[in-house]
Amino acid sequence: AIDSYIMRNCDLHPYELSDEDWSSITMVSSWLKSFCSATTQMSATKAPMLSTTPAVFRGLQDDIETILCSLATNVSPIIKKGLLDAHKKLSEYYYKYDESPFYTWAACTSFYYFC
Question: Which pLDDT value is given to residue 108?
Answer without folding.
Answer: 65
